Amino acid sequence: MKRFPGSFTRYALAFGALLGATLAAGAQEQPPTDTTSPLLPLARPIPGADPMLGVPVGVLTVLSLADLPPGQRRMMAADLEADRRGFKAVSESNIADELATYLDFLKAPEALANGGFQSIARPGHSEFGRWTLLGWMRGLSDQRGSRLLSITRVFQRPDKVTVMLEEFHYPEAPGGAMVMIKELINARVGPYPARLVISKAPSGLSRSTLIWVTPEAKFDIWVYDDVDHPLDPAWDRAWLIRLAESLGT
Prior knowledge:
Blueprint: E1 11-14, E2 18-20, E3 60-63, H1 70-85, E4 88-89, H2 92-104, E5 132-138, E6 150-156, E7 162-168, E8 177-181, E9 187-189, E10 192-200, E11 206-213, E12 218-223, H3 237-245
Parallel strand pairs: 1-8, 3-8, 4-10
Antiparallel strand pairs: 1-2, 5-6, 6-7, 7-12, 9-10, 10-11, 11-12
């Protein structure tokens, strides 16, 4: 799924990457229920679920593939195959256009101090703090539009590779439910479940995406390099996990 700067949805499913589905604005105002949702008809009801979302709001729910309706299970087949193969095959434009689009939307680094975002991650206390901050992008705001709930910071490593850090305070967002699929959890960041996916074009252009969810936020790190086959062995998969853990989330 192509991503656009600042476009966060209220409900995200970690089906390989976090996939968004736009939901009715009033969904989170309904009382919890133990019935299944018409939008996501799971095989079993989830206690305390929002009646429209099918899962509880403001928390992470871990489901199994067996919980999903047949259509969603078929969608997951490609992600499972990518895990077995070691990477997800994508087109050249999927990576190149995405990166170019993000760089076009950057705000100046100095504007970040006045962005009104209360960060949980501490990039300044990590390896990020020694890199060049190219800029940042606004994400979702609260209902009044006065407080940011998500931002993406864009850095350049010493080897000129672009690395992005996205932070989304989903419990504060309307309908901010998070779901991860147990069979697609293939990493951990400290105590938190995570998913690491390598996307690779035929030319070798690649992107490594690490997603993890804590009780306070969802975090993504995108490295425009293949951490399983980096040009420099120092920038490998273990390095990416250490980088995520150093953020103090």
